[in-house]
From TrEMBL:
Record's cofactor remark: Binds 1 heme b group per subunit, that coordinates a highly solvent-exposed Fe(III) atom.
Keyword RNA-binding found: no
Required cofactor(s): heme b
Protein name per the record: Peroxynitrite isomerase
Placement of sequence motif GXWXGXG: 21-27
Species assigned in the record: Arthrobacter gyeryongensis
Domain notes: Forms a 10-stranded antiparallel beta-barrel structure able to accommodate a hydrophobic ligand in its interior. In fact, this fold hosts the heme group, which is located in a wide surface cleft.
Length: 199
């Protein structure tokens, strides 16, 4: 399946362009063993003319036939190339950018390619229950690997210390895996899914 790059896409989002759209499919909690719970997930990656993708994932517990049983969770966030923010960039808050986009050409973007041939990325994801994650990682073609640099928790949030996530585009489908560490435990399988592109 060819990847279509929107004509109005900010140049620095081209490496992330294969994520853009609506995805839906099924997954398993934990290691995916026979007794692992099933879930359905709907994911969207959208762009707004700014140097980041907006991310939203909504999940429901399901039976093994794919019938939704009840809501599971929602997470939201932002995905971008990792680079130093310049005076011309917008923020913090509502401070407008001087120039949009700051990186105007493919050559400007290529200057940020890392020694491994990919691009460093930063991802922030917020969860219900007062938990936010800051991930750093790499996108190289249609593959992403990232791990938390920080997990921020509210005073009454559940314990959660670290995570890794991997994403890949395989035959036009989005596959992902999420490993999580809680106090006293090393990273272990938390969930994985296989999502089909809707649009």
């Amino acid at each position: 399946m060819p990847i279509e790059i929107p004509s109005d896409l900010t140049p620095e989002l081209v490496p992330l362009s294969w994520l853009i759209g609506e995805w839906e499919g099924r997954g398993r909690l934990g290691t995916g063993e026979e007794d692992s719970d099933h879930f359905i997930q709907h994911v969207s990656f959208t762009h707004h003319g700014l140097p980041y993708l907006e991310y939203r994932a909504e999940s429901w517990l399901s039976d093994e036939d794919g019938t939704k049983l009840r809501p599971l969770t929602v997470e939201t966030g932002f995905w971008a190339l990792e680079r130093k923010m310049l005076d011309a960039d917008g923020g913090p808050g509502l401070i407008p950018a001087e120039i949009v986009p700051v990186l105007k050409t493919a050559d400007d973007v290529e200057a940020h390619r890392n020694a491994d041939g990919g691009f460093d990325i930063t991802v922030t994801i917020a969860h219900p229950g007062g938990i936010s994650e800051l991930y750093y990682g790499q996108i190289k073609g249609p593959q992403i690997q990232m791990s938390t640099d920080m997990v921020m928790r509210g005073g009454h949030s559940k314990e959660y210390t670290a995570a890794t996530r991997i994403f890949g585009l395989v035959d036009g489908n989005l596959l992902w895996r999420w490993d999580v560490s809680t106090p006293g435990k090393s990273l272990e399988a938390h969930a994985s899914a296989f999502l089909n592109k809707l649009s």
